[in-house]
Please model this.
Amino acid sequence: MSTPRLRSSDLRVLALGALATLVVAFPVVLPVIARGFNGLYGQDSFFYQAYATGPLREALLQLRLPPDFTWPPGFPLLVALASLIAGTGSLAGQAVSLTAGASVPLATMLLARELDLARPGSRAMIGLALLAGLVTALTPHLWQSSAVVMSDTTGLAFATFGAWAAIRYVRTGSGRWALLAAGAVAFAIEVRWVYALVAVPLAAIGSVAARRRPMHIFGAAIAALLVLAPMLIPMAAALGAGRPVPFSIQFASHPWDPANAIRSSFVNADGRFDFDLPMGLFYLLQPAQLYYLGPVIAVAAVFGLMVVVRRPRLTTTAVLIGWPLLVLGFLAGDTTQNTRFTLAALPPLAILAAVGAVAILDVFGRMPSQRALVGRLTVLAVIAFALAVSALTALRFTDSFIERQQADVAAIRRLYAGVPAGSRVISFGATLALRHDGVGAIELYDQTPGSVVSLVDDDRPTYLIVPRDGLEGQWADEPPGRAFEVLRSVPGVTLIAEEANYRLYEVGS
Model:
């Protein structure tokens, strides 16, 4: 069966979506260039960068499967490929993140249009898709995630395009859309495991649509397996050999328990946490935060959810209820509170907000003409104000984030400048930043109390660069906390300097 041509409304959405990509791209690029930000911060982004432009790039050039890594290899694969053109600096990773982040509003608009959430042929249909795209494009956390060498925007973009292709398959019955949907969603999983949850409702509606087309199901399964092969083959080989399974640390570091939704204190692989809010309440409130939809647009999303629940269809239930429910439900049972994790549910939340806004406008449209005009203008003004607040928040949120991360890296460099030449450097939280600068720093997390004492039991001067807070709290009962306590007790440590969030100690002085 040939693929049906795009409808005229689809072409209009494509054109508007292309403009929406610029709403993300230009404002993100400006602070990145102005501040000279290389997209690297914390530990994880340095880890992605080192893996993608080091062992993975070498493996690709030698036509080998991806070597072992902590997280799924999808994002590093794209970065490694981009590095063949952009070089081994961080530009390749930033380009991948920014391109993916800028495409998410377009994918959201196409998905909203394909769901046919307004009357066919009406202006509301295009308006709804446009509003969903604008809500997505002006989400502050999307801007921030588009500026860094991290996997969040890449997984989100592939999942959203995959959802759009899945809904097109349900409507058209064309096997090509089934293949595209399966491949895109599979790659989203290869970027971040959380999108395996999104695959569940999409696979369900695809299976229903293909119940009389078994070859479509078979073809989609083959497409997904081919895309996942670079990850699944090394995992299966390691499992068969009894070695640690690569790409799967998240299964151990994020133990899931539904009872976690009402808990606020946890001990996990990252130490001990005592949060202000229970896990479930934290993630329930995330969409209403200013760095996501904001309170006004979040209220519109609640109205949109009511509309979808009252008029359920297979496709809208899967995408607009199943997707965010599974993602937020999983996060509610997690043991880590991280604002960026909610990004995985952004597109359906933005579409729900657009559905709610259109529904409210329709309510006023049924009133007497004068009251209808005043009411609709008021609603439009409130929406415009909320979007303006989101845009301003996005600018400040992204710029302040970049400023903080650069301050941390600068602090680490200033502390290292105070280390005498030839000295041994042990660090925690700053290790990958130091290694990125060519410093052979030793990771404190990898040390036991016995090994760290043996390590410093010589005449070589040794210095510690560690976070100001955490080793005596969050990490006290974990490897870095125990190793630090032994160093402080046996050879002794002396505080030499303090910069931003980090401290420099001399060991055995």
User: Anything to note?
Assistant: The longest helix spans residues 369-417.
